[in-house]
Amino acid sequence: MTAELVRGQNHPLSQARLEIRISAGTPIVAVAALGDENGRIHGVEWVAHPGAPTQPGLEVPRQAAADHRLAVDLDAVPEAVHRVGVLLALPLGGAGPVRFGAVAAPFVAVTGLDGEEIASYTLTGLEAESAVVALELYRRQGAWKVRAVGQGYAGGLAELLTDQGLPQARQLADSINDAVAQGLAARSVQAPPPRTADGDRSRQAAAPALGPDQGGGTAPQPNPVPPMSPYGGQTPGGPGRPGPQQPSYPGAAPDPDAVTQPSAPTAGSPIDYSHPRRQNAAPPPPPPTAPPAAPGQPAQPVAGDATGWSMEERLYNQVWGMFEDLARTTAAYRSAVDFAESRMDKELEQVLSDPRSRIGGQGDAAREAARARHAELVAQAREALDRDLNQLAAEADVVEPALPAAYARWDNPVWHAYRVPMEIPMALRLGDLHLPEADRIRVPMLVRLPLERGLWIDSGAAGTSDGSYTDSHAMSRLAMETAVAHAARLLAVYPAGEFTVHVIDPAGSGAQSLAPLVQTGVLAAPPARGAAGVADVLGRLTQRVDLVQMAVRGGAADSLPPGFDTSQQLLIVNDFPHGFDDRAVNQLRYLADEGPAFGVHLMMVADREESSGYGPLLDPLWRSLLRLTPVADDHLADPWVGHAWTYEPTLVPPGSQVLQQVLSQVAAARTKFM
């Protein structure tokens, strides 16, 4: 099973001879660097690049291209090497993009020589960077692992290599760019024509001269044979797995300028670029399970028909596609209504500005005509909105039952078949979103994992979206129940032993709501009480962030103390600021700012007004957290079209035992893991 890595995640490697496939929507430069146990590159001879494509245990392509294959033999690297970094950079001096934020997210996969995919990683979140450390193969206790890094550098290869400790970083970066420029100039194979209807890519060629990256400088073979890996065995793309793949993102399309590798070119004969297992574009959607729509009727929705390499990713993209569609169609409706009203106001103003039409039948007729045109325009807009909403509602009806547990509501039957997962999902559902014009459609609110910012469950008394009012005591109880539901969901979607929950409840007011977490034994320790408990928990988590931060920044992430808990940590804080002194407040702010980057996440259950005694000191804390409410509230605004979305939390249905059942399985799996 392929491990789809997220940034910072690692995966064991059971093979020494590997190939690393890289796919991007634009030509990029691929470099492999050898590093010692601290990640430092000792010299230019430790770097395989287009100007020096082979080093001990490494071989990289000689040219910039949209698709690459790197060969790695971990048994052949020197004993002093503890890390092998896969570096990607955009070519300089050409007409192409100058930052990764302007291109599709690169996709990197580690495969065996048989083509079986071991681990993959999509480098998302890049903006101004022009060079990036994509993956790192590292030696740990005699075994090799792969880690998804995704560390980008706006200063290009020179800045990247300097950060890796190479003394001749600038000179090597210049030589790599020169080699790439010469390779681009020497390339003589034209890009293949666009794909035909049947997906084949073929063209006529009269004994083309292959570039350095397309045949190793050898002449075409007269007999078709599969290309071989530098270390023996058939290359990926043979039996078992597809060849290079494009990154998954909505709307991805084949690169018309990409040069694909011909399998077995024959001089003077047509070259067939097709491959029975090769994908040259974004992954196709799964075959539709619904019958085709009748002519003139909208297509029947199918769960998972968005772009993606797995069903989970396709459903994730489909959900956010529904969000965008709902935002667009609602914005169009509101714009049409505003236009109709402004037009009616203008026409009425013209009627009133003419003294002859203010009285009498002529003025009444003009006013009635203006109102009739307004009603007609609004009706047309509403008709278009209803048509789009009906299609979205039909899509929601088929998508909701197909969602995995991480994306599903607590009343979804998928929770009754819950098993502790082996891998971390892409995202987590924190609630539902809807708009006033489309109250019947609920779009899941998905956030990527691991969490990039803390959560604030607002327990302050406030009016709800339906006009009702909830007092402070009821809101505090609902807020704590919402926090427990979110914490249980986080525990449920992480593999056993990879997520730890701590609770600070100074006055013990959340004991009833915390009962499911306490009774099932999934907490790291009983909820901390009083000022001493607050100081103890905050001190330990602050020390943990400091330790991991120093290890990562010092390049010694693998040198943490034995027995160190490397799992993601969640701290739930109830009744803030009760039990907090100035030192504890500063530690809390530190965890909110620095914790997410180093595996410590914060969930505050608090009323902002109760902490007003600290003045503006805590304003940055509240702004750094994602505010959620235990009741429906229209406080979330998207920067895209400016809608105020109504948020509703996903709570456990009254009387349901699903929360206890899920937490019991988590506790049992944790016991076996330990």
Plain-language structure description:
This protein is α+β, with helices and mostly antiparallel strands. The chain has helices at residues 156-163, 169-186, 212-215, 311-353, 361-402, 472-493, 511-520, 530-553, 582-594, 619-624, 658-673; strands at residues 3-5, 10-13, 17-35, 47-48, 54-55, 58-59, 65-73, 83-89, 107-112, 117-122, 131-140, 143-153, 202-203, 271-272, 427-434, 443-448, 455-458, 462-463, 469-470, 499-504, 568-576, 600-606, 626-628, 633-637, 644-648. Strands 1, 2, 3, 4, 5, 6, 7, 8, 9, 10, 11 and 12 form a twelve-stranded mixed β-sheet that branches. Strands 20-21-22-17-23 form a five-stranded parallel β-sheet, with helices on both faces. Helix 1 (156-163) packs across helix 2 (169-186) and helix 8 packs parallel to helix 9. Residues 185-282 and 284-289 have low confidence and may be disordered.
Structural topology:
Elements: E1 3-5, E2 10-13, E3 17-35, E4 47-48, E5 54-55, E6 58-59, E7 65-73, E8 83-89, E9 107-112, E10 117-122, E11 131-140, E12 143-153, H1 156-163, H2 169-186, E13 202-203, H3 212-215, E14 271-272, H4 311-353, H5 361-402, E15 427-434, E16 443-448, E17 455-458, E18 462-463, E19 469-470, H6 472-493, E20 499-504, H7 511-520, H8 530-553, E21 568-576, H9 582-594, E22 600-606, H10 619-624, E23 626-628, E24 633-637, E25 644-648, H11 658-673
Parallel strand pairs: 1-10, 17-22, 17-23, 20-21, 21-22
Antiparallel strand pairs: 2-12, 3-4, 3-7, 3-8, 3-9, 5-6, 6-7, 8-11, 9-10, 11-12, 13-14, 15-16, 15-25, 18-19, 24-25
Helix pairs in contact: 1-2, 4-5, 6-7, 6-11, 8-9
